[in-house]
Design a protein that fits this description.
Isoleucyl-tRNA Synthetase, Domain 1; four-stranded parallel β-sheet; 566 residues; binds arginine; 13 strands
């Protein structure tokens, strides 16, 4: 039983409360001189008919303390518990060393599947930093859920449907050639699209041509499909480069067009359930009772919409994966869309609509400038990552010019710095990306954590060479304030991972990792790990090993690599 549980048990006995009640009330005081745990007695005042300070006093006298608690003191309305530091050190460190790579994992997801819709890029558009957050957050959520025992299905819901693809094919037929598209990829497609609009100003019949090609796609015409599928392939090949750099993969690329033959079911069901109404010739679901504009299902010409496809996708995902939770990692601008879709699912009678969740996030700007495709101000993700790697390489060249596999480390640090800044704060907060902030070695950055991890690795290598004694660790050697601070940061990690999963907030892991990093760096100022006294070395090496483990796991969970030498 861990220390907290032991305290809960003795409190439950002394106060005649349920353990779960005590658990909910037991606090960790803001500063260590107020004890390691504190029980507020205010809630007992009513039943005990006594003032809280008196209750605290009585409890202090009656309570039978477990061995791990040195003393309990009544202070105002609180009963403060002071844990034996040696026992505290043991209780914090042992679980990390025992669990190793599994420290912070959980099994609450056992037997449950979770769908995560993320990245979900658009075909024929280049991957720009507007899609950075969804990609990075989704990947982190994938890893965090997996670590807590869930079976994850990562879905890249490709934006591969829309009239623009008809126009693109028309343009390709007029002015395109295979080599250029193969060579320039998405850029060539964008150029064709721009050209289409320029030419269509002069010759409006082009619009009809575009519509005809789109109809051809809808009707599965072989020629149209061949070009369209090839556009998709070329776009995905570009995107794959980015995914590879980030170490990201998906279990499904079923995008909007995948649902072409799965929409009749949605429409039939909506009709049968009396949910469809006509509005200006279009078919909609009226949501005015929930203060929302109607959800558009069919356009006047019978064409389906983004929402129709998301309804079909939700049904498909439920049928195929039987998810316990289905996440949509999409910018907050689409929050109305998702509220509408989830409401329609609920109105269709699917009680699992409550398991669908829009995991929204804020905007990304770049060195103070808001991105805008319209104004031509875009930052492409592959270029951003490439530059990050180059900049990291320059910094490493200055700091450690003769580092082995410098190229590899520059890649890990550069890309890590971009990823890290994306999951540094809560999702909804806008991100402004600045190079010097992301790449600094002593701020809240990837290099700062990575460097600390590498330092741990190097200490452990040296300890191994020196030879570490066998046998048990003397935990009383890890009881000074600095060591206790490191230990407490380590023991907060599992709960941070669990909360990150529940709230879909990977930054909670980032913060926990930063807390361990700064506590360890502080410890390191006054404590040499390799000491003259082998017992001291033994204990400190164990602490270092635990720190390295938590940093490595934490970085992995947010999608950052951890080099062993830097
Ligand atoms: N492709 C869309 C965009 O870039 C995001 C799709 C999100 N997923 C979904 N199921 N609607 O804005």
């Amino acid at each position: 039983m861990d220390i907290r549980e032991q305290i809960i048990q003795c409190l439950a006995e002394a106060a005649g409360m349920e353990a779960s009640e005590v658990d909910a009330a037991l606090e960790v005081p803001p500063s260590a001189d107020m004890g390691d745990y504190a029980f507020p007695c205010f809630r007992l005042a009513k039943t005990w008919r006594k003032a809280p300070p008196l209750i605290a006093q009585e409890l202090a006298e009656q309570i039978g303390l477990p061995a791990c608690v040195e003393r309990a003191e009544a202070v105002k309305g609180y009963l403060n518990f002071y844990v034996s530091r040696t026992e505290l050190a043991r209780a914090c460190l042992e679980p990390v060393l025992e669990a190793g790579e599994r420290y912070g994992s959980g099994n609450e997801g056992q037997g449950k599947t979770i769908c995560i819709d993320y990245s979900s890029i658009n075909i024929a558009k280049r991957f720009h930093i507007g899609h950075l957050s969804t990609t990075v957050l989704g990947n982190a959520l994938y890893r965090i859920h997996e670590f807590r025992g869930y079976k994850c299905v990562g879905i890249n819901h490709l934006g591969d449907w829309g009239t623009q693809f008809g126009k693109m094919i028309a343009a390709y037929k007029h002015w395109g050639d295979k080599e250029t598209v193969e060579r320039e990829g998405v850029d060539a497609m964008t150029a064709l699209y721009v050209r289409f609009h320029e030419e269509a100003e002069k010759d409006p019949s082009l619009e009809d041509e575009g519509r005809r090609w789109f109809k051809a796609i809808e009707e599965n015409d072989p020629e149209a499909m061949e070009i369209f599928n090839w556009f998709k392939e070329v776009t995905l090949k570009d995107a794959m480069r980015v995914y590879d750099m980030l170490g990201i993969r998906f279990d499904s690329y079923a995008g909007e067009s995948f649902y072409n033959d799965k929409m009749d079911r949605v429409i039939d069901e909506l009709k049968a359930k009396g949910l469809l109404t006509e509005s200006d010739g279009a078919q909609v679901v009226d949501l005015s009772a929930w203060d929302m504009p109607p959800c558009l299902i069919l356009k006047q010409d019978g064409a389906t919409l983004y929402a129709t496809r998301d309804l079909a996708a939700a049904l498909y995902r439920k049928d195929t994966y039987d998810f316990a939770r289905s996440l949509y990692v999409v910018a907050y601008q689409q929050s109305l869309h998702f509220r509408q879709v989830f409401k329609v699912l609920e109105l269709m009678g699917y009680d699992w609509a409550k398991d669908c969740e829009h995991v929204a996030f804020g905007m990304v700007s770049y060195e103070g400038q808001t991105l805008s495709t319209r104004k031509g101000y875009v930052v492409y993700l592959d270029e951003l990552l490439q530059r990050a790697v180059e900049k990291a390489d320059t910094i490493i060249a200055e700091k450690t010019p003769d580092l082995e596999n410098r190229e590899e480390v520059a890649r890990q640090v550069g890309i890590g710095s971009v990823v890290f800044s994306t999951v540094l704060n809560n999702r909804i907060k806008d991100i402004d990306f600045w190079w010097d902030r992301a790449l600094s070695f002593d701020g809240e950055t990837a290099p700062y954590v990575q460097y600390t991890h590498a330092r741990c690795c190097s200490l452990l290598r040296r300890a191994e060479e020196a030879g570490v004694p066998e046998g048990g660790i003397d935990y009383s050697l890890l009881t000074d304030d600095d060591a206790i601070a490191v230990l407490k940061a380590l023991s907060a990690f599992p709960d941070a991972v669990s909360q990150a999963q529940v709230r879909c907030e990977p930054y909670l892991v980032t913060r926990a990792v930063l807390a361990v990093t700064s506590a360890f760096n502080h410890y390191y100022i006054d404590h040499r790990v390799i000491d003259e006294d082998p017992e001291v070395t033994h204990a400190r090496v164990a602490l270092t090993r635990a720190v390295r483990q938590v940093l490595k796991t934490g970085l992995y969970l947010i999608g950052v690599e951890a080099p062993e030498r830097m």
